[in-house]
Amino acid sequence: MTLKLFDTTLRDGEQSEGISFTVSDKIKIVHLLDDLGISYLEGGWPGSNPKAVEFFKAVEKETLKQTKMVAFGSTRRHMNTAESDQNLKALVESKVSVACIFGKAWDFHVTHALKISLEDNLNLIEDSLRFLKKNMSEVFFDAEHFFDGYKRNPKYALEALKAAERAGTDVIVLADTNGGTLPFEVENIIHEVQKVIKTPLGIHAHNDSECAVANSLVAVKCGITQVQGTMNGYGERAGNANLCSIIPALKLKMGIDCLSDLNLSKLTDVSHHISEIANLPHNHHFAYVGKSAFAHKGGIHVSAISKHPETYEHIQPERVGNVQRVLVSELSGISNLLYKAQELGIELDKNDPIFKKLLVDIKEMEQAGYQFEEGEASSELMLRRATKQYQPFFNLLAFRVINDNQGKDKFVIEATVKLEVDGTVVHTAGEGNGPVSALDHAFRKALLSKYPEIASIHLTDYKVRVLNSSGGANAKVRVIIETTDDKDTWGTVGVSENIIEASWNALVDSMEYKLLKGSK
Can you give the pLDDT at residue 241? Predict the structure, then answer.
């Protein structure tokens, strides 16, 4: 079957809480999805606001390899003709060749939201689509609230689709706008639709009942030819159908060649890139593209995947551009440590007492509050230090943080650091807007003359968690620091009853890991 992917990240996705794309952001996403091989990309409502106008003017200048830009809108207003309706005219004037408009397929919305007669709504649908078909290459009708409408008044919901079919629309998209329909309902209703509608069908699912991906896949199984969704499932309320899950399921599970193998292998990178553009943390637990999607923690699991990955992996992670990861934790067995050592190029026998001692140390450290899933760089350093195959790049002699109150609302935070670097004692000071910032500045000064590569790194995240709140002011805290050199990103962890000491330990690991990377 020929199936087309329709992305609405720039329109429906931007309606997600916390997302506001600039025009420049949108153009970046356009090229990412064009390179990925998405068939249709919805750009938003032309003429609805100045940013939308600017975007459609900007995208007109871009050269796309395979993606068709789509202008979105609604049926004409009740008091307008199609030819005089400004929203419809804006679609035509957008200079893109494809339009997708929504209209009401639920009688409740017609009478209570539009406050017009049911017959008038059918005329709105047909008139609007006929006008667009005369002026644009392809036109899709998004039957808003179709599944809710069908469940309450199937006859009228089908009449709305028939109106779109009479107008010659290219695809009729069945929308689960409230996201409350379940997969078995989707299957039954689509089969009923197919008895009376011959126009190709699409699916547009929202995720309010956590069924958007499942509903989309069931719809494909029923024979629909267009799947709408967003990258990372961004969208209003609980989001839209997540194309990052739908695409590999279609290709790898259902045998539908919706993307080339090469493009599928870009999926994880594109997912992460769009998270960065949206300025949102990437969900580690996303299926297929999440950092944890192929991460293994239990010793039994690791023992099995070391023999054959298929024992605990449903696909090869490389197919979607992801990687297998083995975590070191209190659940680790010897298999985890052996796997990690092999991954790092450390050759040791499984009967080596170093491993047994290290396993005990890890369990004791996690009991004390360490968490190495987010501090993998710290776990690598710990393994290397334990095996005696690692020489430190510096030795800490002392550090101090001073908080100087210089008057009302004026504080100066100063840190001093004393290190031994290559047999030379280096004593430096630095200021910052907080103790971690001040320590970071002082630490860099101490290392830069010997290790200039330190200048390229910066902290991107700093998390503090109180581990035993019942301890009050003496509670133990865990600090996780995320660092990047603009090529790689790594996490380190420190634990102490003293938040500055915990921060320092994570900071030291962060710097040392960067130097380790450069020495390999």
Answer: 98
Residues 220 and 301 in one domain: no
Q: Is the pTM of this model over 0.70?
A: yes
Cβ atoms of residues 28 and 277 within 8 Å: yes
Specify whether the backbone of 38 is left (phi greater than 0), alpha (psi in -120 to 50) or beta. Answer: beta
Task: Sheet with 411-421: list strands edge to edge.
Answer: 395-405, 411-421, 424-432
Side by side, the strands of the sheet bearing 477-484 are 458-466, 477-484, 489-496
Residue 433 DSSP label: S
- Residue 328 lies inside a defined structural domain of this protein: yes
CA–CA dist 287, 284 (Å, integer)? 9
Q: Do 236 and 89 fall within a single domain?
A: yes
Q: What's the pLDDT tens digit per position in 39-72?
A: 999 999 997 888 899 999 999 999 999 999 999 9
Q: Which long-range contacts (CB under 8 A, 24 or more apart) does 45-48 make?
A: 45/11, 45/71, 45/72, 45/73, 45/87, 45/90, 46/71, 46/73, 46/90, 46/91, 46/93, 46/94, 47/86, 47/87, 47/90, 47/93, 47/94, 48/90
Residues in the chain: 520
21 & 96 share domain: yes
Q: Which domain holds residue 344?
A: 295-367
Identity of the residue numbered 280: L
Strands 325-326 and 295-296: parallel
pLDDT, tens digit (0-9, with 9 covering 90-100), for 449-481: 899 998 988 888 888 888 765 555 567 888 889
Beta bridge partner(s), residue 308: none
Calculate the CA 392 to chain-centre distance. 36
pLDDT surpassing 90 at residue 418: yes
Whether 247 is in a domain gets the answer yes
- Planar angle of CA 330, 268, 335, nearest 5 degrees: 25
The pLDDT score that the predictor gives to residue 476 is 82
